[in-house]
């Protein structure tokens, strides 16, 4: 059985060896990311997800912020590996920053008080779906990516640098670029440990 959608999902991997030699234009990449986020589902169609797409100097600036932030808290004798990891992200072509708009979430909590405690949970699900949608869409276009979480350490600096709304809550960072080296074989747990099927 051949299923193009499932094959595309399988092609999504965490790619850490990135470079800037992508074949698509910035406009084409931007359109892929925008469409993937726009068509990702959210509870009550609340559309809480926000994305900031960084190219060029702005992409580099993000990873400089991460490096400067971590340099203050990671012991100097342990910083070489951290510095190398950040350099691998900076070597990519761009980064997507994923946010959730807390003002929208609060509005739905007020309007639908019966479900108030669920909206933050549903927001986390929405951002996860949006992140996966972008990741798979980039993979389908031959662009590698990984998902990073340097929030909340960098939140204030990121908002200040790009003048972002206070209500935008940073959830993840996705560096992307040309795949400079293929990832290793992926291992999976046994199906019988993961699934229960009743017919």
Automatic annotation (TrEMBL):
CDD domains: Frm2-like. Its main location: cytoplasm. The keyword Cell wall biogenesis/degradation does not apply. One of its GO terms (biological process) is cellular response to oxidative stress. GO terms for molecular function: oxidoreductase activity. SUPFAM superfamilies: FMN-dependent nitroreductase-like. Keywords: Cytoplasm, Oxidoreductase. It is found in: Cytoplasm. InterPro entries: Frm2/Hbn1, Nitroreductase, Nitroreductase-like. Residues 9-177 form the Nitroreductase domain. Signal peptide: none annotated. This is Nitroreductase. It comes from Listeria kieliensis.
